TrEMBL record:
GO terms for cellular component: cytosol. Pfam families: HAD_2. One of its GO terms (molecular function) is protein tyrosine kinase activity. This is 5'-nucleotidase. InterPro entries: HAD-like_hydrolase_sf (IPR050155), HAD-like_sf (IPR036412), HAD_2 (IPR041492), HAD_sf (IPR023214), PGP-like_dom2 (IPR023198).
Length: 238
């Protein structure tokens, strides 16, 4: 059961995931994870497993999918983040059409937010690196320390923070993401979710999700957002 979000105003609100939705990591995340594992003498999973680690909290992925011992997790995460800061951000890039779409939505009065399980400081820096931060009314990430309780709340808590900060209502809001975690975070807050096909969802994942639409490029995404937010008469991409 979703709680009701207190409302003083209710703008149309689009909440975006970050990696795999707005930003193409271009191998910087999977490559960084492989680098960190190798640096600590640990085996590197295959490419498909590495790709599936993009989206969920890194601690969880390292432990569950890469079998990293608990006593080594913090060191591996530290190595990964240092390499990501020094190399990964510069290697990544916005997906085609995303900067233009964000500019159009904001100019038309839609409130824009980011809800990501990437640590807050890295999310802020990544968006600034690519000049996307100027489009967003708020940016919501996980605590830098993923062992803290707020990080354990997962995507649902981060999406709820975006809703509350922007005085959003479920019927006037939408989540956009590339993985099941985004759909789950949206559903926990009573929001529809649009899935983007250019991200990191493994084959068949979207078929198991209750999505408002699944889109293949930024133009389709813009039309789907307009429909879900009741800004257009009929759906163009589902």
């Amino acid at each position: 059961m979703c709680e009701t979000v207190p409302v003083t105003d209710s703008p149309a609100l689009a909440i975006f995931d970050l990696d795999g939705t707005l930003i193409d990591p271009a191998g910087s995340i999977t490559g960084g994870i492989a680098f960190a594992l190798q640096a600590h003498g640990l085996p590197v999973p295959d490419g498909e497993t590495l790709s599936s680690m993009v989206g969920p909290p890194l601690l969880e992925s390292l432990h569950r999918l890469a079998d990293v011992p608990e006593e080594t997790l913090s060191a591996v995460v530290h190595t990964y983040r240092q390499r990501y800061i020094s190399h990964g951000m510069a290697e990544s890039r916005p997906y085609p059409g995303i900067p233009e779409l964000l500019g159009r939505l904001r100019a038309e009065g839609v409130h824009l937010a980011v809800a990501t399980q990437k640590p807050q400081n890295l999310a802020d820096r990544l968006l600034r690196t690519h000049g996307l931060d100027v489009h967003f009314h708020s940016i919501h990430g996980a605590p830098d320390d993923e062992t803290l309780p707020p990080a354990q709340d997962g995507k649902a808590g981060i999406v709820r923070a975006a809703l509350m900060t922007n005085h959003g209502r479920a019927e006037r809001s939408v989540m956009i993401g590339d993985r099941r975690h985004d759909a789950a975070g949206a559903a926990a807050n009573g929001l529809p979710c649009i899935g983007v096909r250019w991200g990191f969802a493994p084959a068949g994942e979207f078929a198991s999700l209750d999505l408002a639409a699944a889109v293949g490029d930024a133009d389709e995404l813009g039309r789907a957002i307009d429909v879900v937010l009741h800004r257009a008469p009929e759906a163009a991409a589902c």
